[in-house]
Amino acid sequence: MAFGLREFSLRAGDGSPSLDSSNGEELMHVQPSVAVALGNRSVESPGTLYITSRKLIWLSDVDVAKGYAVDFLSITLHAVSRDPQTYSSPCIYTQIEVVEDEEDEDVTESTGVLDLSKIREMRLVPSDSTQLNTLFDVFCECAEPNPEPVEGDTILLLSFNSVFASLTIYMFVLLYVFSEEEEDNGHNWVFSADQMVIGGGGEEDGEWPISQSPTSVIGHSNGDESIAQPMLELQISDERFDDAEEMVHESETRDH
Amino acid sequence: MLFFSYFKDLVGQEVTVELKNDLEIRGTLHSVDQYLNIKLENTHVVDQDKFPHMLSVRNCFIRGSVVRYVQLPPDGVDVDLLHDAARREARGG
């Protein structure tokens, strides 16, 4: 997955762009006779706009090596622009998220070569301007199934949609909440009952206090006591947590 | 889901969306989805110098992940209710 605008010239035999169908990418809409204007540069045409489920692709109709692509993940805003005073032709105006680089305002003048990854605005000008609303709607439809891939959201989804034991759900939600507050401890979290067992017995961390209580191991998370307290409060003797028995066994056999 | 529900109730009201690139857009909230993607109508850009091309835009779709703030109409917000609801949501209850 690439960030920002980039060159794209992979074409299939019929001139259409090669898609990553193994990743589920499908062609959603084709709009012929579309010109493209990157940033403040002059418009380039003629070309064809291909809208896939993952990205926008513009391919030149006359130069097979010329084409641009941008993932919907990078398109932060899109709109229909119709004011002739702002731009000569009605177009779809888009903003593209770029990696911030403070010194870089001139996308061409610094090196003489266009740096596509710094393009922040792109206009797509169809020769048929009655198609603008259709294009806008297609952009909306394709943007929606391309949300940010964030781990935290996954945990939250699990907690609301799964049929796990209610205690597990409660713990997952709490883990999510605390992972938001504790920046460095995300990697220490356990996500399954099995992990809690392993994490409890095998560490060489000498700070782990010995305890006969089956609840304490889970309550101590690699030395970070501030997290331990709320975790302890979660412990209830639920027979679905087999590790309770294993914990007792491990405590008995530990040499300290 | 709290803010998704909350914004759905705000549809039709005027809001100002501030993006992470500092662009501020005022407009009528047309719709919102579960990722908090926002569609605005009758948009006006607050600071027109930075993005002059936005002058001619009247309707736009804003990706949820790029929103920094959404400024809400003061009489459209019950702060205490929202506060309680947010606290409940964080607790998972």
Automatic annotation (TrEMBL), chain A:
| UniProt feature, compositional bias: Polar residues | 210-219
Origin, by domain of life?
Eukaryota
State the UniProt keywords alphabetically: Cytoplasm, Nucleus
Q: Where is this region: Disordered?
A: 201-231
Question: Record's InterPro entries?
Answer: ICln, ICln/Lot5/Saf5, PH-like_dom_sf
Query: GO cellular-component terms in the record?
Result: cytoplasm; nucleus
Identify the Pfam families for this entry.
Voldacs (PF03517)
Q: Does the keyword Transmembrane apply?
A: no
Q: What does the UniProt entry say about where the protein is found?
A: Cytoplasm; Nucleus
Gene3D superfamilies in UniProt? Pleckstrin-homology domain (PH domain)/Phosphotyrosine-binding domain (PTB)
The entry sums up its family as follows:
Belongs to the pICln (TC 1.A.47) family.
Q: What is this protein called?
A: Chloride conductance regulatory protein ICln
Q: What organism is listed for this UniProt entry?
A: Eruca vesicaria subsp. sativa
Automatic annotation (TrEMBL), chain B:
The record ties this protein, via InterPro entries, to: LSM_dom_sf (IPR010920), Sm (IPR047575), Sm_dom_euk/arc (IPR001163), U6_snRNA_Lsm2 (IPR016654)
The record's annotation in SUPFAM superfamilies points to:
Sm-like ribonucleoproteins
Every Sm domain range: 2-76
Q: Where in the cell is it found?
A: Nucleus
Which of UniProt's keywords are assigned here?
A: mRNA processing, mRNA splicing, Nucleus, Ribonucleoprotein, RNA-binding, Spliceosome
The GO molecular function terms of this record are: RNA binding
> What GO terms describe the biological role, i.e. biological process, of this protein?
mRNA splicing, via spliceosome
- Superkingdom of origin organism: Eukaryota
**Could you tell me which PROSITE patterns the record lists for this protein?**
SM
Q: What main location does UniProt list?
A: nucleus
**Per the record's keyword annotation, is Zinc included, yes or no?**
no
- Name the Pfam families for this protein: LSM (PF01423)
GO-annotated cellular components: spliceosomal complex
Q: Cite the PANTHER family for this sequence.
A: SNRNP CORE PROTEIN FAMILY MEMBER, U6 SNRNA-ASSOCIATED SM-LIKE PROTEIN LSM2
Family membership:
Belongs to the snRNP Sm proteins family.
Function of the protein: Component of LSM protein complexes, which are involved in RNA processing.
What is the name of the protein in this document?
A: Sm-like protein LSM2
